[in-house]
Amino acid sequence: MSDDVQELGITESKSHNTGEWYAEVVRKAGLADYGPEGMSGFIVTRPRAYAIWERLQGFLDAKFKNTGVQNAYFPLFIPESYLEREKDIVEGFDPEVAWVTEAGNEELEERLAVRPTSESIITPYISQWVRSHRDLPLRVNQWCSVVRWEATETKPFFRTKEFLWQEGHTAHATHEDAWTETLTRLDQYESVYEDLLAIPVLKGQKPDYDTFPGAETTTTVEALMPDGKSVQAGTSHHLGQSFAAAFDITFADEDENERLAHTTSWGLSWRAIGALIMTHSDEQGLVLPPGVAPTQAVIVPIWQEDTKDAVLEYAEGVAADLDDAGVRVELDDRDERNPGFKFNEHELNGIPLRVEIGPNEVDDGELTLVHRPDGESTVVDREGVAASVAAHLDELYAKLYAAAEETLDGEVREADGRDEILGTLGQHGGYVKAPWCGDEACEAPIKEPMAAEIVMVPFEDDDPLVDADGDDAAGDAGSHGETCAICGEPAQRTAYFAKSY
Amino acid sequence: MSDDVQELGITESKSHNTGEWYAEVVRKAGLADYGPEGMSGFIVTRPRAYAIWERLQGFLDAKFKNTGVQNAYFPLFIPESYLEREKDIVEGFDPEVAWVTEAGNEELEERLAVRPTSESIITPYISQWVRSHRDLPLRVNQWCSVVRWEATETKPFFRTKEFLWQEGHTAHATHEDAWTETLTRLDQYESVYEDLLAIPVLKGQKPDYDTFPGAETTTTVEALMPDGKSVQAGTSHHLGQSFAAAFDITFADEDENERLAHTTSWGLSWRAIGALIMTHSDEQGLVLPPGVAPTQAVIVPIWQEDTKDAVLEYAEGVAADLDDAGVRVELDDRDERNPGFKFNEHELNGIPLRVEIGPNEVDDGELTLVHRPDGESTVVDREGVAASVAAHLDELYAKLYAAAEETLDGEVREADGRDEILGTLGQHGGYVKAPWCGDEACEAPIKEPMAAEIVMVPFEDDDPLVDADGDDAAGDAGSHGETCAICGEPAQRTAYFAKSY
Hints:
The structure is a homodimer. Chain A is an alpha+beta fold. The first copy, chain A, folds into 3 domains: 5-280, Bira Bifunctional Protein, Domain 2 (BirA Bifunctional Protein, domain 2); 297-403, Anticodon-binding domain (Rossmann fold); 412-499, C-terminal domain of ProRS (Translation Initiation Factor IF3), CATH 3.30.110.30. Chain A is built from 13 helices and 23 strands. Chain A has an 11-stranded mixed beta sheet with strand order 3-7-8-14-11-10-9-22-23-21-20, sandwiched between helices. In chain A, β15 (297-301), α8 and β16 form a beta-alpha-beta unit. In chain A, α2 runs antiparallel to α5 (175-196) and α12 runs parallel beside α13. Chain A is globular, with a radius of gyration of 26 Å. At the A-B interface, β2, α2, β3, β4 and β5 of A face β2, α2, β3, β4 and β5 of B. β5 of chain A pairs antiparallel with β5 (98-103) of chain B.
């Protein structure tokens, strides 16, 4: 809402200083401000970014509800003893949490963690709610904020001490049902990225040794950022029976035998907003696909004193038609700004489609549509404007998706052998795929020198990765027919190496 | 989700043990559970209650957005120095907060409050965002949870240490604009209660000495609960220029003169869910108006072995028709439960309309509709079922509203003189209205003996309570023509005395 003209320009280069460019877009497009002094790592989410989050929420939440998920809300705080219980059963769980130790002018008897994730408080309630096989599947989700006190540098939406997300928690009668659930949610995350945000993702699982603590398998969608790094864009965990055993989620089956449930959890955070900004935006500012854009089309009337009334009247009619058709449209009829200023401002703010209306358009019964991403300009008839705009919005989405897909396709390379993998990653970034034996020891020679790791192992043959005994198929022997790029032993899977956020 | 039949019955009496009855409805209708051990004062909001909250959110949020409000999200924590700043300028502000003192395995240099309300963190950002009169009005709202460490007994949705709410914060160029804003939000709160929740409310302002700390005027909608107490159901504050002065919200006016803004804040919490449960529910359990009911109509097919297929097929057709028409409908075709059990369960859970379909209905091309609140039963034609159900849902709303309005009308009594006010409140509860001089000293003789207070002073003549000089009209002299019921001096306003939550 600043008035300063120079504030409109992006000065950093996306390709050369991706990080600085990103920070500049976030600030100048009014997406987020940094938190107050004394609260580094926190951000203020401004209306433009929050409106994107609301659209993402609406899209995903509708999918959840159509597939049996109910929303609920659990307390913000988790007693230390509950987290300890999780620690005891789940090796490696040691989140850096913020602790409430004083409240109402007294010291608390037990410290309360501000939730870093809610398994340890939700699972005991699921345990109370499940008695019979008829209570399964049980699925709850909450949209909330969580706090993780990581000391790394703040990057709005990518790395913040507090972030918004949804966390789903489910219980099922069988291992297979829990698998179906895990993959259903992963597919929904894929759809958020691909269908809504116009970002193609790679779908697969994390290596066995890199799962969420306590999970049997962690599945992931990974998105490639313009700096050549992969971002874990959404995760869905098959938790097996570890949480069910620890928190006693048992149920009477149809024969009244007591059985132990199988659980899942899955989450997607506002990191999706970060990936969105990173992927499509440019050196004019924010670029948004129409599905998440708070404003989809802005009408900029262009007048001289003698044509003002006619142009404005015509523009108002167009705005009304678009609004009636459900297009999120704004008419920028500000007197105090000239069209050039308005163009820059709306480009900075990522409005997908600009509608220009001047005296010529009025005389000819036309309008000029300009695509934000590439400036492509088309003259269309005033008649049928709503259909034209809808078609152009679809085209815009397709354009953004195609560009991102082309980038991704070009950034997946093959390599064989440690040196080639390191060389390729070093030169290009992006993903390097290579046959892999499944052993953590064969990731180390890549991870140690250049902090790249196996970010994803694709599913093969739509195999849900799972044996009859519940083991992960990445541990199966000899199905791949190739040899591990590092050790030369038989390969089990294809591994995607990349640097990651 | 319990299987135990005895769990279905409400055993407490609404009229005799309102508190216990309320707690039983909350638990047995699956609305909320108490928080974990060590976290008294917290609740787990179960899907049925959360779905009510979502509908309320949707209703109110749409009104906000139609009237210029944008949602945003500010950090969960507020540095102690920010709260202190508010304390310094705002006499009486001393919320009982929860403090984060340790995070990431280190002690923090400055304590962070878990937000009890966000004026002190939002206002400094508004100050940064406002430069010119063109940036005004500026309106942001957030839906979030807040924490207030009150030691009183927990009552789900009414009194909990953490609660969900929305808080709106706005800045305006003039005192009058801020007034319009204050009353716009108050009217929207009134509409939530009256149009959505079927609860009539009384609208007015708090006495001058009982405003939100720092506010010039606090306006309120008050709802009467069945135990005869008033609940402050939503509040909207005109903050005058106190926050703007403290946090330096200035703007350049049209002549480039620097001026100080006028601000408001307004909030509505999940207490609305508490008021909803309290008002309409009965000794069969929860009663909900159709607008907020997660399920509006449940179809219960009634069959013998030989009629099962025909009844079910017919019921499925009805369910499909209602679903197509946008009715939130469930078909309860469980084999393992008999119709009587189902009736009880759906009554407990507050489904507004039951649709009974047996062999007779199938033969006659009819259905039986039963209203949850009073058991009124009507046979309607299968043909046109969607329109019939819609009409009955409207009728149900009207029935609930009329009953609540009749109760409220009967519970507003007049009295003159201290003893009559005390006697009337003691005998009946509810509201006692009396002419009042506007002086706090005249509330004390009621407040001290029986903890009843002036909960509301109605607006008069639609007067927005404000003088040209910005003073509150409750302080005006001599406009009322009556004498104060306590001191006998000229009355300024009518005061509503009541016990309150």
